[in-house]
Task: structure prediction
Amino acid sequence: MSRSSFLKTDYIILLLLVVVLAVAIVVPIVHPFDLKATDLLNRLQAPTFSFGESEYFLGTDNLGRDFLLRLIYGTRTSLVVAFGALIIASTLGILLGTLSGMYGGWVDSIISFIIDAKLSLPTTIFAIALASFLGSSEINMVIIIGLSGFASFARLVRSEIMKLKNANFIRASRLMGASSWRIAWEHFLPNILSIIIVNGTLRFASFVMLESSLSFLGLGIKPPNVSLGVMVSNGRDYLFQQWWLSIVPSLVIALIVLASSILGDRLRDRLDPNLGDLNA
Result:
């Protein structure tokens, strides 16, 4: 397959991601839906694409609820949790990485120990332990996933600041009397912002996966609230008869993860000048 074909495929996947984001944001606003409502007389109706006679495009779940609307609401929940976790992880990681890289010495030793200790633990095991301790809710999921992902940001920021701290323009700023925090704000962060954006895009995909995994295991979002992981978990008991109850939300998760990874790769190609020279 040619490079142009790969690019076209990438654009199609990114376009699908944009559509998914738009639907997940707009539909809950224009079409409010009671997640607690049930209709047992219409449970497990087949979707119209499988030649079912249901009035619902994706049929109904085991409690007779509109599966398409629940899928949209679940997608919104997973995206909101992942985005909130990304804000926490990036903010905490940037702060710790900046302190470690700027000051060095015992500050760097303590923060590096924290980063190494976190990276030595499997992310899913760490998140499961936190979820068992803090309990399950959307806010707790944001905090848990955010704390599970800060270390990669911290290590990345620290390494980039260590490269920049002895640059001539940094030394000139110090000689002119600029404080460490002013140098960090005016010089360090602008120079590493592109790397942070790329890493954040790639981490977003892993946060969606982590939220789905925790919810699938019963440690994340709890019914009647819904997320993609909850829907996959609820549908596994009907996998052989009503396969779409698990497969469709699984495909949405795969689409979000794939599109986020492709977006991260494209941003890296555009924002990393060294990589751009190699590709040229």
